Amino acid sequence: MATHAVTDASFDSDVLQSETPVLLDFWAEWCGPCKRMGPALEEVASDFEGRMKVAKMDIQANPDTPGKFHVRGIPTLMIFKGGQVVATKVGEMNKAKLAEWLAEHA
After folding, report:
1. Which of 49, 79, 80, 96 is deepest in the core (most CB within 10 A)?
2. pLDDT for 1 beyond 90
């Protein structure tokens, strides 16, 4: 299972109303650290399949949602459970750190 693309329009149904926790990666095409994290996100999406949905939102194409959640720098990763943000990390993480952090919330 790969990561899901989320838009401002699909945010409520894809993230807030999700039955499983959602890791949402706020990123942009021009962001080097975001691009470097891409493969790790794809891997944890497979590792956590069924326990957590991994999604990505391009902040350039979808400015509303990042604004609502006060995203200042990217990559910003937020874990949503039951429609609420339960954890946030800003900055690049390797797969091991990412998996460790997700395991606390899955």
Report:
1. 80
2. no
- Mean pLDDT score of the chain: 95
pLDDT at position 106, please? 82
Question: Which segments of 1-106 are extended strands (E)?
Answer: 4-5, 22-27, 53-58, 76-81, 84-90
- Nearest to 15, CA basis, from 3, 25, 6, 2: 6
Residue 56 appears among annotated catalytic residues: no
Residue in 88, 70, 86 with CA at minimum distance from that of residue 78: 88
Q: Select which of 15, 34, 52, 74 is catalytic.
A: 34
Collapsing DSSP to helix, strand or coil, 14 comes out as helix
Amino acid symbol at 38: G
